[in-house]
Amino acid sequence: MSSSNDNAINSQSNTESISNQFSVEQRSREFIWKTFIIVSLQIAIVWEICSFVLLTETLRHWMSNTPWFIWTCGILGTLLQLEMLLIPQLQFAFPYNYMYLIVTTIIIAFPASVPLIDVEIWWTFVTWIVTMVIAGIVVGVSVLRRFDLLKSFGPFILATFVVELFFCVVFFPFIYFEEYDILIMLCGFAMIWTVISEIGIIVQALLGDRRFTFRNDQHVLGGLIIGMLIIWLHLLVSTEVAIFHVLFSPKQQTPAPSSLG
């Protein structure tokens, strides 16, 4: 009698295990598709605004001479993105979460287009190709159901701001003494280091830490964070391209003054 009860219990547990596994796999596929749609929406918005800025001479001239607008968009967009992460009512209240997401993405897109203002238009597509290749490698080798996006986002933000703050402090003497050539070279290496560090943090969060467990209620949050990472990665890549374009572009030779006598 006891053996039959044990068999029944084992059979029930096996059925529940298979059912749970199927449910997790189904939610994982749903998570991947929703994340892909949200990220694609963000990328399309940023790409369109970048192209619009580069193709509109008046807007490009106005943005290049209005730094307060760029700083306002950058700070406001970052705060709105963080608010989306911290307030659950905004995360999951459809359709307001998607409307909020579109608005914040538009705001973030303007700072992302600034580094490319003085660079050839076709560099825009090059920077997006580089960005999407990097993001594709990171996401492609990951197992999306095995990480917690909130935990991976914390180290990302901390590392990004610490690195940027460190370089701002280091670069201040070069700005004060007007050593711009050295500053440009250091900025290029800083951008490369920052991108590599961020990719390392993302990869570690996706693959290397078993604490990152899949949660079903993070569809919108997952798309938001991954899309935000891609947007800021594009901002870094485009800035790096602009820096190296200025550094290695042919300088205009000024005519030597003619000697009198």
TrEMBL record:
It comes from Trichobilharzia regenti (Nasal bird schistosome). Keywords: Membrane, Transmembrane, Transmembrane helix. The chain crosses the membrane at residues 31-56, 68-86, 98-117, 123-144, 156-176, 182-208, 220-248. The keyword Membrane applies. This is Uncharacterized protein.
